[in-house]
Amino acid sequence: MSESSLSGQKRPRCGENTVPATAMAPPMTTTNQGCPIPFSDASDSLKGEHSRGPVLLQDQILREKLTHFDHERIPERVVHARGAGAHGYFESYADHSDLTSAQFLSQPRLRTPVFVRFSTVQGSRGSSDTVRDIRGFATKFYTTQGNWDLVGNNAPVFFIQDAIKFPDFVHALKGNPQNDIPTGSSAHDSFWDFVSLSPESTHAVFWAMSDRGIPKSFAHMQGFGVHTFRFINQAGVSVFVKFHWTPVQTGVCSLLWDEALKVAGADPDFHRRSLFENIEAGAYPEFELGVQVFNEDLIRVPASGPDDSVLIDLLDPTKLVPTELVPIRPLGKMVLDKNPDNFFAETEQVAFCTAHRIPGIDFSNDPLLQGRLFSYTDTQITRLGGPNFHEIPINRPKCATVNNFQRDGFHRQVVDKGQANYEPNSLGGPLKHEAPQLDEQMSTTAPAVTPPMVTPMETAPSVLTGEMPAFVKNLLVRAKPRGFQDHYSQPRLFYQSFSIPEKKHLESAFTFELSKVTRPWIVQRAVDKMLAPVDLALAEAVAAQLGIKVTPPTAAVPTLTPQASLSQMSYLPKRPVGRKIGILVRDGSRASQVKDIQTFASKNQITALTLGPKRITYTADDDSEIVTDASEEALPSFMFDAVCIPACQSPVQDSVTRIFIKQAFKHLKPIVILQDPTETLQALGLPADEGILIAPEFSAVSDAFIKALCQHRVWSRQPKAEEIDA
Ligand code: HDE
């Protein structure tokens, strides 16, 4: 029965609010078979003996509704269960056909639709956003040549070198099998047991314990393909590439640990909300995609430093190549400008797979990547209930055709027509395959057919025979190449490239995590085997806080030249777009200043919210009303990037306001005070500093305020901030 045949008019579907509720004809609910359900039947089940009798099994409306509800959930992802997604587009900067035949990179300004899903790794679907963890950064490009998935992380290195270790790593990382504790955290025995027994994990653990493990938002993260991939051009020339996403405008910024802990309690959806709200507000997250390009004869790249005998093996996913050594070639930019319409249909059902590639892009022999090529499709078969998940709208290619003889299976949507479900065939083609002589014979008798479109997909020949002497080349081995054995020079490089605050944060992170580990031998091993070989002073500082002694390492570790590109300080925001400021108001606050701050905010794509000790309407100095967006308790200062305090005759008295300002100071945030600061600063025991901007009018500090926001934090305040109780 069609929708129109019931009433002669197309009815809106339930929940499809295209016109204001008042003007809309009420939508008629139906069963899943399209049969209308009168309103009277929608809220009471069918009972015998008037309204007091038993509910009847024959009530098909009730049974259908409960059955569907009972099956609303699908298994969550085994890793990366918690995530948030967005639609957008990728725009190529130029013609990159010298590198790749991928058409979406063949013209300047060519746009390709994308869907991105950001995620945490460890926690379950309902865990908190701001936990310390690596973040997933997976992008589906709906190109004209089919879908290409770039399934990356916000760290350029991974914890293991071979796919065969992945289930062990994930089991150790996830919650205790007895009680599923903890969710969303690596601060527990089994994670540190595994990584301290696996030296190859050291580098990725350093990334997770660094500020990258607690990003400020998804729009403030870099993304990395991690593995080495290949680009192949029309002439068949293949090069190795490493993919990089860079948030050029918003910068790479992180939370402070104290903030991350508090935010997790106050708003577990912090990152998800920020992505959603910024897109709704038009402050679209943007990322530049670029590649480091390596000639294929360069299997190992010399690292720079006093010991230049160190070689970086391009097949080792625990190593990065600093961008100072091999610069990034920018390819284009991605803009995320549309929120999903339905979380389940899009963000939950999207199925990424590293094997989804298009012509011009190919894999390398990285043993971790090779395992991933299998694992992603395999997992979707359980998670999405069969092999037809590519037909779910969010996964469907947007190019003209999907054309093959794969058939049937659970949840098949396409109604395949015709008798030919095999190839070669002469009932519709293709004819030409293994039997050319038969083709010729048939072509005189069979009807003319147009063969289905076949997209050529080149595969680069493998040149990676590695270090093996010729006589063993053909042996099958279970072994790692020799170049994979150096596990410490790169985490040392990473740590030594940090600014002082970043080093301090890393030390605190290791101390926090290891103080949660209950078995003393695991703590000792982590300090001796992971920290000490990387940096003895760091190991000693952490050990001192854990009350243990370090055993110095015996083997020497090469020291490489520090690289600024590894410090977040090299990626400060260019614009304050997407930042959030709190304007603290109370009775008597100066209305004109509140307005000035709001105008400034909307001009700069900043969200400005008015906050009061209570969520009530206050009376301004000119008797106008100031409506508050929230109370300072409901949205504490750690939910904001900066605070503005307009002039007011009455002093700051409420304890909630005092805590708000003190926490903003402690978390190194810019504070704008638009009157004599004595009452705010001295009364709260806060010293003046370069991040406290004082002026009689907002216009006098607006430029300095933008600069302060683009520094992300008032870094020079850190030593004083540590002394503040808040
Ligand atoms: Fe994944 N990974 N992974 N992974 N991964 C999954 O696929 C796997 C690895 C990454 O938003 C799963 O659909 C193996 C590296 C992201 O939907 C699963 C190995 C990197 C996402 C899987 C790795 C990633 C996943 C779980 C080692 C960074 C979320 C559900 C060989 C380059 C994608 C799913 C999304 C998800 C397997 C290692 C990134 C089980 C076997 C390295 C961003 O298939």
TrEMBL record:
<dbReference type="Pfam" id="PF00199">
    <property type="entry name" value="Catalase"/>
</dbReference>
<dbReference type="GO" id="GO:0046872">
    <property type="term" value="F:metal ion binding"/>
</dbReference>
<keyword id="KW-0349">Heme</keyword>
<dbReference type="Pfam" id="PF06628">
    <property type="entry name" value="Catalase-rel"/>
</dbReference>
<dbReference type="InterPro" id="IPR020835">
    <property type="entry name" value="Catalase_sf"/>
</dbReference>
<dbReference type="InterPro" id="IPR011614">
    <property type="entry name" value="Catalase_core"/>
</dbReference>
<dbReference type="GO" id="GO:0006979">
    <property type="term" value="P:response to oxidative stress"/>
</dbReference>
<dbReference type="InterPro" id="IPR024708">
    <property type="entry name" value="Catalase_AS"/>
</dbReference>
<dbReference type="InterPro" id="IPR029062">
    <property type="entry name" value="Class_I_gatase-like"/>
</dbReference>
<dbReference type="Pfam" id="PF18011">
    <property type="entry name" value="Catalase_C"/>
</dbReference>
<dbReference type="GO" id="GO:0042744">
    <property type="term" value="P:hydrogen peroxide catabolic process"/>
</dbReference>
<feature type="domain" description="Catalase core">
    <location>
        <begin position="30"/>
        <end position="431"/>
    </location>
</feature>
<dbReference type="InterPro" id="IPR010582">
    <property type="entry name" value="Catalase_immune_responsive"/>
</dbReference>
<feature type="active site">
    <location>
        <position position="153"/>
    </location>
</feature>
<dbReference type="InterPro" id="IPR018028">
    <property type="entry name" value="Catalase"/>
</dbReference>
<dbReference type="GO" id="GO:0004096">
    <property type="term" value="F:catalase activity"/>
</dbReference>
<dbReference type="GO" id="GO:0005829">
    <property type="term" value="C:cytosol"/>
</dbReference>
<keyword id="KW-0560">Oxidoreductase</keyword>
<keyword id="KW-0408">Iron</keyword>
<protein>
    <recommendedName>
        <fullName>Catalase</fullName>
        <ecNumber>1.11.1.6</ecNumber>
    </recommendedName>
</protein>
<comment type="function">
    <text>Catalyzes the degradation of hydrogen peroxide (H(2)O(2)) generated by peroxisomal oxidases to water and oxygen, thereby protecting cells from the toxic effects of hydrogen peroxide.</text>
</comment>
<keyword id="KW-0575">Peroxidase</keyword>
<feature type="compositionally biased region" description="Low complexity">
    <location>
        <begin position="20"/>
        <end position="30"/>
    </location>
</feature>
<comment type="function">
    <text>Occurs in almost all aerobically respiring organisms and serves to protect cells from the toxic effects of hydrogen peroxide.</text>
</comment>
<comment type="similarity">
    <text>Belongs to the catalase family.</text>
</comment>
<dbReference type="InterPro" id="IPR043156">
    <property type="entry name" value="Catalase_clade2_helical"/>
</dbReference>
<keyword id="KW-0479">Metal-binding</keyword>
<feature type="region of interest" description="Disordered">
    <location>
        <begin position="1"/>
        <end position="30"/>
    </location>
</feature>
<dbReference type="InterPro" id="IPR002226">
    <property type="entry name" value="Catalase_haem_BS"/>
</dbReference>
<feature type="active site">
    <location>
        <position position="80"/>
    </location>
</feature>
<dbReference type="GO" id="GO:0020037">
    <property type="term" value="F:heme binding"/>
</dbReference>
<dbReference type="InterPro" id="IPR024712">
    <property type="entry name" value="Catalase_clade2"/>
</dbReference>
<keyword id="KW-0376">Hydrogen peroxide</keyword>
<dbReference type="InterPro" id="IPR041399">
    <property type="entry name" value="Catalase_large_C"/>
</dbReference>
<feature type="binding site" description="axial binding residue">
    <location>
        <position position="376"/>
    </location>
    <ligand>
        <name>heme</name>
    </ligand>
</feature>
